[in-house]
């Protein structure tokens, strides 16, 4: 397999882990799914080609049976709850947030309860009790009530060992984060530089090798440019068959 220096660095690190009897668990989370689109079909076909399990964070208020029919019969697809309507309720000047303290807690909890029930009914075979907050932000008081709704896990962005993640941790609630984002949200809003993305993956792999955990890759199929598709194809080609790398279904990670 021909590869550039940065990709070879990833292969070399995985080779070292294999020799040491270690493995890195990767998982893929894609946000903002609503309906079948050309981009979604491309993502589904790509992950299927490399046998990479896919977690789709679906917006409950805006989805319907069309997405269910699109995913019917596909293997290794998990459906997570992506808030309720992905609507910003923060005032101007604050970071966007749907699941914040800007509304009565009971209102937010009822929306999450409705979203949980809706997706569980639409996708009975692939639904997982995982909440993915829009914009990766959730108020700690809202997080405290997730277990009562039925959620067993929460996924935001960043190391699980960080103070931010620790503040969200509650008995019976597992934190399963993503750690590497492929999109340059504050610049081009296209794909980040491939070298920088792989460096971030290598950094996370080192953290996993030392302290456990997973390597969570975050994508947003609706905004992918061609460079994102090229990157994902190369990532899967490099890792999917490597003995020191396992792409995991998030349902296997919940309760682990």
From TrEMBL:
Name the Gene3D superfamilies for this protein.
Glycoside hydrolase/deacetylase
Q: What is this protein called?
A: Polysaccharide deacetylase
Q: Where is this region: Disordered?
A: 85-106
Q: Name one GO biological process term.
A: carbohydrate metabolic process
Q: Write down the CDD domains for this protein, in alphabetical order.
A: CE4_u4
Show the ranges annotated as biased composition (Basic and acidic residues). Answer: 85-101
């Amino acid at each position: 397999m021909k590869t550039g220096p940065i990709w070879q660095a990833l292969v070399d690190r995985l080779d070292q882990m294999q020799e040491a009897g270690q493995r890195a668990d990767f998982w893929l989370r894609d946000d903002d799914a609503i309906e079948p689109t050309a981009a979604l079909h491309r993502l589904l076909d790509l992950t299927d080609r490399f046998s990479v399990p896919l977690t789709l964070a679906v917006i409950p208020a805006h989805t319907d049976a069309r997405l269910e029919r699109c995913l019917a019969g596909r293997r290794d697809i998990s459906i997570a709850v992506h808030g309720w309507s992905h609507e910003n309720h923060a005032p101007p000047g604050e970071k966007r947030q749907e699941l914040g303290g800007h509304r009565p807690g009971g209102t937010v909890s009822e929306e999450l309860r409705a979203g949980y029930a809706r997706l569980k009914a639409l996708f009975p075979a692939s639904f997982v009790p995982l909440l993915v907050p829009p914009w990766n932000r959730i108020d700690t008081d809202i997080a405290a009530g997730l277990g009562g709704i039925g959620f067993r896990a929460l996924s935001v962005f960043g190391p699980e060992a960080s103070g931010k993640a620790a503040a969200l941790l509650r008995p019976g609630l597992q934190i399963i984060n993503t750690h590497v984002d492929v999109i340059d949200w504050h610049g081009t809003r296209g794909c980040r530089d491939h070298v920088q993305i792989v460096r971030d993956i290598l950094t996370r792999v080192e953290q996993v090798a030392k302290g456990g955990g997973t390597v969570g890759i975050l994508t947003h199929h609706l905004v992918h440019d061609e460079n994102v598709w090229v990157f994902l194809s190369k990532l899967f080609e490099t890792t999917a068959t490597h003995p020191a790398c396992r792409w995991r279904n998030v349902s296997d990670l919940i309760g682990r």
